[in-house]
Amino acid sequence: MRHLALTVQYDGTEYAGFQIQPQVWTVQAELETALSELLQHQVRVIGAGRTDAGVHAMGQVIAFQTDNPIPEAALLKALNDILPPAVAVVICTGVPADFHPCYSATGKLYSYRILNRPLRSPFINRYAWHVGQPIDVEAMRQAAETLLGKHDFSAFAAAGGSAQTTVREIFRLDIETEGELIETRIGGDGFLYMMVRNIMGALVEVGKGRLVVADVAAILESRDRAEAPPPAPPHGLCLVKVEY
């Protein structure tokens, strides 16, 4: 039996998230349908992360098993021919039998983009949160520093997650600007359910002047989700890379 891993990219706009769910279309369903057709047997895939509805990915990783001898390069090309335009596979590689896309990971990197200008843009509105009010990026950077390191991120975890611990370590939280675009890159050893979106919601409130840096530190210390602002919308978020 062969054990294979694929790196997958997708536009999550029209999907109800990555994880397969009844009566809605998901990225996992697209992949399993296409792989089953190509390999001529039922395929079940495991993903590195359960991205929410509307969230995108440049580096989602999935794993599956097959006894089909198709070469990896041929599988990659044929699978892309079957998949819809919103989903593509970019890497196919053999992995050990004990490889798990989620549990074998040592870290993940996410990107969150904001379009900060008075009027929205039809060219980026699927991939960035439009915020018309001016944002103080330097204030966001200062608030972000309070989140670096290992903490209990209960205050930034939405209900419904299955994590056994709410302690996570954030390695990096960089906020850069390019014209009207603000991009945050956040990397850590793992993330709780909706953690990145909840963090971004708080940082943008700082950027708008509705919270100060000390407020973000206090929210973190409180370990109380009710103390934090609403989450940022999903469409600005992208899973960039999974580290192994």
Short structural summary:
This protein has 244 residues and is of the alpha+beta class. The protein has helices at 27-39, 72-82, 137-145, 195-207, 213-222, and strands at residues 2-10, 46-47, 56-66, 87-94, 107-116, 129-131, 149-152, 167-178, 181-188, 237-243. The chain has 5 helices and 10 strands; from the N terminus they run βαββαβββαβββααβ.
Characterize the structure shown.
This protein folds into 2 domains: 2-94, Pseudouridine synthase I, catalytic domain, N-terminal subdomain (Alpha-Beta Plaits), CATH 3.30.70.580; 107-243, 2-Layer Sandwich (Alpha-Beta Plaits). Helix content is 23%, strand content 30%. The protein is built from 5 helices and 10 strands; from the N terminus they run βαββαβββαβββααβ. Strands 1, 2, 3, 4, 5, 6, 7, 8, 9 and 10 form a 10-stranded mixed β-sheet that branches. The longest helix has 13 residues, at 27-39.
